[in-house]
Design goal:
By secondary structure, this protein is an alpha/beta fold. 40% of the residues lie in helices and 16% in strands. It has one domain: Alpha-Beta Barrel (TIM Barrel). It has 12 helices and 13 strands. The longest helix has 16 residues. Bound molecules: flavin mononucleotide.
């Protein structure tokens, strides 16, 4: 089935404007996911035996999740769960709605198996996302909600802005991802720095600790992170007990063909794999299994997923792989993991 997507469907989709294709898919999924027959057929086509994993106090039917940014308004979650994912990370959601950056802002680098995006957290805001999830829950898989800051909010006010977003979304997520690593919001990545990160996450963790149910957190880091910042983030994660997502997209252009080098934004897909896996390995070496890690960046097939799991990831996430390899990618990865004899906790 994956073969059919790559030979036929992808050709058609790739002849159209990338953002238009994405928006049309989300719109179609939003309606189709309410038709039970459609969901049953989808589940049948993407079915694969479970490979259960436990991480961050949650149970996952398999370790392959959808990365943040695909369903920014949390509106197609039931459809996406039908693709076989073990978990979904929705968002990034900001407190207030915002349009994002001017178009065009999404580019396919076909010859590189990659994407460059400078979307800039375009989303309908936390209240709309909450309302949408209210209609879709419960879902058959854990749902993470990625939170970020509004573009017009200063770094000084960022902790308050993130906290307010979290408060709106808290009852709808099984875990929360604190996104400090998008390259498309000015200075967002400076939140990696020591005290800034502590000042950002402490109020959110305190809020969660005061709720009836304390839910787990992850901080999503950049592949371009400086060593001292990575060490600081890892130490804080161990101290506070939150997990890490390694990594977001990169601003590095050394691994892409010449014509794309000057395009601004975050690069994902095949050229990100090596850099992202190197940061994942460094992160795993620092946290030494004391907090969970999600590997994201260049997971395009079974071997690239297995690489991340062997380097120390408890779970992995896919974005560009879904675009390039199609809706059977989770099944294809799981089949590979099973053939390779992968078991949760077997990192060797
Ligand atoms: C179009 C696009 C939009 C994205 N938006 C977000 C986002 O809103 N929040 C986030 O944390 N990551 C976002 N990402 C990054 C992905 O979640 C993922 O970490 C990254 O693409 C690397 O994985 P991949 O190589 O499998 O694509 C986005 C990626 C793409 C391609």
């Amino acid at each position: 089935m994956g073969f059919l997507y790559r030979k036929l469907v992808r050709r058609i989709l790739f002849s159209l404007n990338p953002e238009l294709v994405h928006d049309s898919l989300i719109r179609t999924a939003r309606s189709a996911q309410h038709v039970e027959l459609f969901n049953s057929v989808l589940r049948f086509l993407t079915r694969s035996a479970d490979l259960p994993v436990r991480a961050a106090g949650l149970k996952f039917r398999n370790p392959v999740g959808l990365a943040a940014g695909f369903d920014k308004n949390c509106e197609a979650a039931r459809f996406l769960a039908g693709l076989g994912f073990g978990f979904l990370e929705l968002g990034t959601v900001t407190l207030r709605p915002q349009p994002g950056n001017p178009k065009p802002r999404l580019f396919r680098l076909r010859e590189d198996g990659a994407i460059i995006n400078r979307m800039g957290f375009n989303n309908a805001g936390a209240w709309a996302a909450a309302k949408s999830l209210e209609n879709l829950l419960p879902l058959p898989v854990p749902v993470g909600i990625s939170v970020g800051k509004n573009a017009d909010c200063s770094l000084e006010d960022a902790p308050k802005n993130y906290l307010e977003t979290l408060k709106v979304m808290y009852e709808f997520g099984d875990y929360f991802a604190v996104n400090i690593s998008s390259p498309n919001t000015l200075q967002l990545r400076s939140l990696h720095r020591g005290e800034k990160l502590r000042r950002l996450v402490e109020p959110m963790l305190d809020f969660a600790a005061g709720c009836k149910k304390t839910k787990p957190f992850f901080v999503k880091i950049a592949p371009d992170v400086e060593e001292a910042d990575l060490e600081g983030a890892a130490a804080l994660a161990v101290e506070k007990g939150f997990g890490l997502i390694a990594t977001n997209t990169t601003v590095d252009r050394s691994a892409v063909s010449q014509r794309w080098k000057a395009y601004e934004g975050g690069l994902s897909g095949r050229p990100l794999r090596e850099l992202s896996s190197a940061v994942l390995a460094r992160t795993a070496g620092l946290v030494k299994g004391r907090v969970p890690i999600i590997g994201s960046g260049g997971v395009l097939d079974g071997p690239s997923a297995l690489e991340k799991l062997r380097l120390g990831a408890d779970l992995v996430q896919v974005y560009s792989g879904l675009v390039y390899e199609g809706p059977f990618i989770v099944k294809e990865i799981l089949d590979h993991l099973r053939r390779a004899g992968w078991r949760p906790g077997s990192r060797g």
